[in-house]
Amino acid sequence: MRTVVLTMKASVIEMFLVLLMTGVHSNKETAKKTKRPKFTVPQINCDVKAGKIINPEFIVKCPAGCQDPKYHVYGTDVYASYSSVCGAAVHSGVLDNSGGKILVRKVAGQSGYKGSYSNGVQSLSLPRWRESFIVLESKPKKGVTYPSALTYSSSKSPAAQAGKYSCVIESKPELINTRCVLGDSREINILTGQAPLALAIF
Question: What pLDDT does 178 receive?
Answer without folding.
Answer: 45
